[in-house]
Specification:
The chain folds into three domains: 36 residues, no CATH class; 110 residues, no CATH class; 72 residues, no CATH class. Helix 2 runs antiparallel to helix 3 and helix 6 packs antiparallel against helix 8. By secondary structure, it is of the alpha+beta class. The radius of gyration is 30 Å and the shape is elongated.
Length: 223
């Protein structure tokens, strides 16, 4: 179709309105890129496709949510590069949506009524096993679950033991008759990812340790 006529018809405005009905960002982008066709066979096919989609929506709408653009993550996988937890979760979400859509389309439905849309739904890849494994191992985009691996569980147990040991030693320092007078506050806090104790300024040279932070009235030292 001649671009001049497309502009006169304000075709871009029509696509913009259409895109607002899309749930996903990728769907909106596809809407904005639609181009009219003057090919009779293609137009007939698209009209059949639209009729099938309308019939599906009238029967019941799929429960889907927005999905992230995973193009970069897929390229990373193809090059055998390690993915971030966020990327893994985004890919898993796509698998979950694929499973939701397949259940939606194939559950108690006469597929023969939807030959065109069936060609789309049949190509969806769903892997419940991967989804289950990821949900078990990843809590959020910054946190792996202890159950992700036996090695990780062992490391975190040792880490917790070490933290308890450090806290015990610092508590001993806080309540020691020798050092308690040097302490500004009877608390253990964290500075620069380290457990520290606030020391009175006048006793800064009396306590061995590394200064992690300084305020107007105290020195934070690891003891």
């Amino acid at each position: 179709m001649n671009l001049k006529y497309i502009e006169k018809l304000e075709y871009s405005n029509i696509l913009e309105i259409l895109s607002h009905y899309c749930i996903t960002d990728s769907g909106k982008q596809l809407c904005l890129e639609l181009i009219p066709s003057s090919n009779k066979e293609k137009v007939f096919h698209l009209l059949q496709e639209t009729n099938e989609a309308l019939k599906l929506i009238v029967q019941n709408k799929p429960s889907i949510t927005n999905i992230s653009n995973i193009d970069y993550s897929l390229k990373m996988l193809e090059s055998n590069t390690i993915l971030t937890l966020k990327s893994i979760l985004e890919l898993t979400h796509v698998l979950k949506m694929a499973l939701v859509l397949k259940d939606y389309f194939y559950f108690e439905r006469d597929i023969n009524e939807f030959p065109i849309t069936d060609s789309y739904f049949s190509r969806l890849y769903a892997n419940p096993s991967i989804v289950k494994t990821v949900e078990k191992c990843i809590i959020d985009e910054n946190t792996l679950s202890d159950s992700a691996s036996s090695k990780l569980l062992s490391i975190r147990k040792e880490e917790r033991k070490l933290e308890e040991t450090i806290k015990e030693k610092l508590n001993h320092f806080l309540h020691s008759s020798t050092y308690s007078k040097y302490v500004q506050e009877n608390v253990i806090t964290i500075r620069n990812n380290r457990y520290v104790i606030p020391i009175k300024e006048e006793y800064r040279t009396m306590v061995k340790g590394f200064v992690h932070d300084i305020s107007a009235s105290r020195f934070y030292c690891i003891c």
